[in-house]
Structures are given as C-alpha cells and as structure tokens.
Design a protein that fits this description.
Blueprint (H helix, E strand, L loop, with lengths): L9 E2 L6 E2 L21 E7 L6 E7 H60 L22
Antiparallel strand pairs: 1-2, 3-4
C-alpha cells in the first residue's frame, strides 16, 4: 500500500469512479455538507516485517485483501509448524510415560515376588528348625 500523503486519486474497484481518500463525488453529503466516506475505506495498523516500523495506513478494503491473504498464509504456515513441534513434544511425553509404566510394572512384579516370599515365612512364634551340616560348617566339606 502506498503512503497516504502520496495518494492523489484512485479508481474505485467496484464502479471505476474516481476515489480520493475514500470519498467520491457521487457520495451523499452529511449534515455539515461533507461528503460521506466509503464504508470500504479502512485503516490498517501494524509493523512492516522488514523494518519493524509501525505504520497506520488507509486504503480500500478491496485493496487490502491481497495483503491480508498473504498475512493469513504466513500465519497458517507458522501454526502448522508449531503444531508439528507440539506433536513431537507430545510424542516424547507419551514415550516417557510408557517408560514410566514399564518401570512401575517391574516394581509391581518385584513387590509381588516379595509378597510371595513373605507368605512362605513361618508364622510368628513358630519354632524354626535349623539344620546344621554334619561338619558344622556350611558349604565346605572338611
């Protein structure tokens, strides 16, 4: 879009008549005898991507369509790449949860084995009979 100070006259994209600053000669006049501004004359504020300069420009909404379509395409690409990043993060988290699940399952198995061994212990107060090897030493035959 060109700068507002540089704008002299443009043709209306809808009927081809001369349009200067959103005002045409065929527009009606308001109470103070000024021509009414076209409803399609809009201001857009933002930053130029190359220079980060803040701008506020007026132009016909029809003329802004190309710019807004380009901006929307860039936004859609950004959202798509962000979605891919989120998908990768979710995949990593799911993998971590699967590892955690397997670890908890292994711990559960260890507790099950420990519980089975505890059940094999003699009841409290029951005398335990120990077998003493004939030589008096365990594991060595002298």
């Amino acid at each position: 879009m060109e700068n507002s100070e540089e704008r002299i006259a443009m043709a209306c994209p809808y009927n081809g008549k001369l349009c200067i600053g959103g005002i045409r000669e065929d527009f009606p006049q308001n109470e103070v005898k000024q021509r009414v501004t076209c409803r399609m004359w809009v201001g857009v504020a933002g930053k130029l991507p190359q220079s980060e300069k803040v701008v506020h420009q007026y132009d016909c909404a029809f003329a802004w369509q190309v710019t807004t379509h380009i901006e929307m395409s860039q936004t859609n690409r950004f959202v798509a790449s962000s979605s891919d990043k989120i998908s990768n993060e979710v995949h990593d988290v799911v993998g971590a949860y699967q590892i955690l699940g397997r670890s908890l399952q292994a711990v559960g198995n260890e507790f099950r084995i420990l519980n089975e061994n505890i059940k094999r212990l003699p009841e409290p107060g029951t005398p335990e009979v120990l077998e003493i090897p004939p030589n008096g030493h365990e594991g060595t035959d002298e």
